[in-house]
Amino acid sequence: MKQNNDLKQILLCAGLILAAVAARIVNAEAHLYNLAPVAALSLFSGAVLKNKSYAYLIPLAAYFISDLYFQVTAGTGFYGISQFFVYGGMALVALLGTRMGQPKALKVFGFSIAGSLLFWIISNFGVFVGGYWGTGLKGFTTTYLMALPFYTKNGTTFFMNSLLGDLIFSGVLFGAYALLKPKTNAAREEVLGVR
């Protein structure tokens, strides 16, 4: 029975990774940057999965596989030191998810916004470390000013897509989980002869 549960967990993880990779690639090809479920998946994985190593593995694998695709097809998948901060930001969002407790609608909403902001702060710090907008205090302030939503066209697109994507996909993932959980628990009880 344990092997069957392990296989189900592995298949679920693989399915989530492939869905996140596909969504990230489709969104990039449609120029809907950052409107992808990866941060929502990080939050969901951290909150729901009992095996916390899977909670970190799923979003990081999804990011790595899609970055590998972007590298092979366009040469833009691996872009320097700031990428480590992107991956670190995803891991921190998964860690945030582990602190959620029982997922309720208002909690999911608040944690989704917190996850978006956490990722925004960490990933943009990586941009600063990479020296894209300069160094020192001027580079630091310019980096975050350029990253503020509504400050630039790209800032608006990137941040708002990220926030909107996190809210939508968190709602979908946690909503589907809430709907399916009673059915899977009932099926498990029936198989085990428990009522």
From TrEMBL:
Q: What is this protein called?
A: Uncharacterized protein
Q: What is the lineage of its organism?
A: Bacteria, Pseudomonadati, Bacteroidota, Chitinophagia, Chitinophagales
InterPro entries hit by this protein: DUF6580
The alphabetical list of record keywords is: Membrane, Transmembrane, Transmembrane helix
Residues passing through the membrane, by range: 78-96, 108-133, 158-180
